[in-house]
Design goal:
Shape: globular
Largest sheet: 5 strands, antiparallel
Distance between the termini: 14 Å
CATH topology: Alpha-Beta Plaits
Number of strands: 5
Structural class: alpha+beta
Helix content: 25-40%
Order of helices and strands: EHEEEHE
CATH class: Alpha Beta
Radius of gyration: 12 Å
Strand content: 35-45%
CATH architecture: 2-Layer Sandwich
Length: about 80
Amino acid sequence: MSSTDLRSERFVIEGRVDHATFPDWIDRHARKLGIFCGPIEAQGNTVTFSAEGAPDMLDAMEMGCSLGPITVDVRRIDRRILTE
């Protein structure tokens, strides 16, 4: 895969996502998908992070986060393309 096949996006996840294990879960899931995940910021009912990877894998990341671990209840995920 060349660097031109990669895209960077900002993920904003909202819901009951304030469980202490969710940021680590996001990081592990990103690594499984071959995605580079930037710093994960958790504040109240929002978790925000940047991710870089193949567009299909970023879609898979969104799906994984929406299902998430049992300890969270994701209500909404907003994605914004940073670079293509």
